[in-house]
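@channel anyone free to eyeball this complex?
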Amino acid sequence: MVGSRFGMSLAWVVLVGVVGICLFANMSGRVAAVSGRATFEIIRERLGPRAGLANLGASFFINLMTMAAEIGGIALVLQLVTGIGPLLWMPLAAFAVWIVVWRAKFSQLENATGLLGLSLIVFAVAVVMLGPDWGALTHQALVPTVPQSENPVSYWYYAVALFGAAMTPYEVFFFSSGAIEEGWGRRDLGQARVNVLVGFPLGGLLSLAIAASATIVLLPQAIEVTSLSQVVLPVVQAGGTVAFCFLVVGMLAAFFGAALETTLSSGYTIAQYFGWSWGKFRRPAKAARFHLVMILGLIVAVAVLMTGVDPVAVTEYSVVFSAVALPLTYIPILIISNDPDYMGSDVNSPAVNGAALVYLVIIVVAALAAIPLMILSGAGA
Amino acid sequence: MKSPTVRAGRLLDAQLHLLDRQVLDRSGTPVTAVDDLELTDVPLGTDLAKVEPPVIENLLAGAVLGTRIFGGRTPDNRWHRIPWSVIAKLDVAISLEADADDFDVRWSERWVRDRIVARIPGVAMILSDLLGTEVREADGTAVGRVIDARFRLEGNTSPSRARLVGLIVSRGAVASYLGYERTAASRPVLLDKLLRALHRGSFLVLWQDIERIEEHQVLLRSGYERQSSVLDPDAQASSDR
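replying in thread with the prediction:
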């Protein structure tokens, strides 16, 4: 989406964000594997109930909006394929998400959506098939300049939004809770690192490919992405029907997978803050409030969609707000992963701490700049 | 045996080591987070020279969280208490020597479970979930299906509990022994022989040899033992621990 306006000049933000999420997700996974404590438990433990509640409110709200956007995404893809309006698909999509959350095993739901999401690789294939001017693309990415037609304030507004999206805390909540769902211990730390180093960069690569394909096809024609069919346009132009089919499967899986992750995260965060029992590894009867939170979350998400607001716009705003709350999540993770009470001998190495401190500065700057940039740029207009 | 984390002489800072920590019951089920602590009374405005220092009586949870965040004070009867004496371990989480459902603080969990979640199918385990389930060894080899579950009555109180002893596994196509698994029933001989032949190779796996029960399969531990599936009620009774 941003690709059609800014070309590849914001690609560096995605890179910075992906390295950051790898760093902190790995840290939260290590804390969970070694101490058995998930991220929101340690947030409340270190920040206390007040700051913890503030973070819970912000994170839960963003999570809910992302959930709505993902369910809206599923509905839009189904509309693209069937021609039937999204209002019918929204409740059905939410119900499908709930059934999977209620019935499927954690490992199934994690692997299946991940594998199918790989078919989004068609975006990368499309970039190659479109036969772009590679020199110009890489030049844009490596020597970023604000495009002539754009206001620098908008450029930085989108930079903060992209950074907030790449470092969105629900991924950390999901990853650390997942480590406990799968019963990770000290011996699984290597596996955890592999998962982080493969999964998150792949996601980042895909978003760059989407941006690149948009840059190639849409930027020259001055088309701004306002609907899903325009995101699809580059791929169809490059690969025809087969690519389109791959794309539909990939988008469905990606939206569905993200909907599952955000739904579970909504349950994880609230249950961990209040100290309730949670998790897919327990039967629903043993984690009743956790399941109730997710059911209510899905109902609210569908209700929000039904009002007719544009879920994509809602997510855009919510990632900016999420940037404000980032320090409240990442500071406790950094502190606890250095706490020998929790980590024993597996505390952070100095190199990890060095990198984390650099990121902490970026995170705090982004958090402070988010709201002023939003106001000054008129939300990126 | 108590954990070394609760050894005499250990110093704790309440805010750091106790408040907001997760409380787990003896099976590791989360009970609550520590929302506040209840101390024994200290007389206000008097010389403390002859007064013993207060001790922590209870971990508190529930409505006190609201007052910690927003200020004010809730009536004492709205607090949920967990007595200090049931604490078994004071680590990054606080473990109790008690069951989660012994405490009032889980009333909302129980209410949601009984009133809402229990109305959705797929919540609790029923016997039919087990019967017919495929049984596999640790390396994935299928060894048959569950055809029955054997229970033992325990305790002298009435009504006594029936606890699972193990699962009866069979490769046979016929779902049940039709009663011929009992030593006492062996007539008509022909039927007895036929059904026993059909269930040749069926066996009992004890609970301790079962590693995991999943949605559609039962996994056995490596090195599990195949016990005779013959049901001799008296022999079982005499081996009752």
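from a first look: The first strand of chain B starts at residue 22 and ends at 24.
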